[in-house]
Amino acid sequence: MNTYEPPLYELSAPGKQGANLPELDVPAAALPAHLLRQDDLADFPELSEPEVIRHFTRISQRNFCIDTGMYPLGSCTMKYNPKIHEEAARLSGFAAAHPLQDETLSQGALRLMYELQSDLAEISGFDAVSLQPAAGAQGEFTGILVFRAYHLDRGDTERNEVLVPDSAHGTNPATAAMAGFKVIEVKSDARGNVDLNDLKAKLSSRTVGLMLTNPNTLGLFEEHITEVSRIVHEAGGLMYGDGANFNAILGIAKPRELGFDFMHYNLHKTFTTPHGGGGPGSGAVGCTAELAPFLPGPNVRQASNGNYEFFVPAKSIGRMKAFHGNFGMLVRAWTYIRTLGAAGLREVSEIAVLNANYLRVQLGAIYPPAVNRICMHEVVLKGQISRSKGVRTLDIAKRLIDYGFHPPTIYFPLIVPEALMIEPTETETKRNLDAFVQAMRDIAHEAVETPEMLHEAPTKAPARRLDEVRAARQPVLRYNAEQFAQLRDG
Ligand SMILES: *Cc1c(COP(=O)(O)O)cnc(C)c1O
Question: How much is the pTM?
Answer without folding.
Answer: 0.92
